[in-house]
Amino acid sequence: MKDFTYKNPENLSRLVVILLVLGALLDTIAAFSSYLEYELLVSVKEGAEITSQMADANDNRQGVIGLAQTILFIVTAVFFGRWIYRISSNAHSFSSSNQRHSPGWAVGYYFVPIVNLWRPYQALRDAYEAFLDLARDNKDNIIFPLWWFAWIVSNILGRMLFKSSMRAEELDELIQSSLITIGSDSFDVFLDIIAVSLVIMVTKACLSHRERQRSDPDAVSNG
Predict the structure, then answer these.
(1) pTM over the 0.85 mark
(2) DSSP secondary structure letters along 91-152
(3) What is the pLDDT of residue 218?
């Protein structure tokens, strides 16, 4: 069995929080930009004339924002995955017997169809509960289910948006796609905020457990 060594997650979690906050800001900008596009399309439907410069400006703005979102999503996913691995690895270093999932699979489950609907949640939740002082801490909280609910809904909206944008050719279809984009970006702001709360909460629990382990090693089970 592999031995896991505790590594301080503080700096990594701080970086993840910064990336998530940037994501929330960018998603807010994207939602507003999509609303401007929606208004432009509706005005065309109502008979207004727009110049090619106006259309190009809209397309260029949407393209730049979309590219920025994609790049930031990839960077955030990489460091969020590293943070999950670090948290799971620390949980194993404290009490491997209570962990049902390895650090590698805690990240890997996200890429496996079907099981990615619940296993990533289980893996991170197990790690979090390994950090708790069950005599003092309440393991029941709203952050975990709220985060996973937001993650699932965000993925559903993302799939809807992809399908809508791929087949949108007529004006009404473009308007509908813009509305889905507004909804998806707006909901992602909510997801980013919940994810920030999750990262802070789990990291604090990990640091607190480490502090208790240092101050009273006999009182903390090492599995």
Answers:
(1) yes
(2) HHHHHGGG-SS-HHHHHHGGGSTTGGGTHHHHHHHHHHHHHS-TTT-----SHHHHHHHHHH
(3) 56
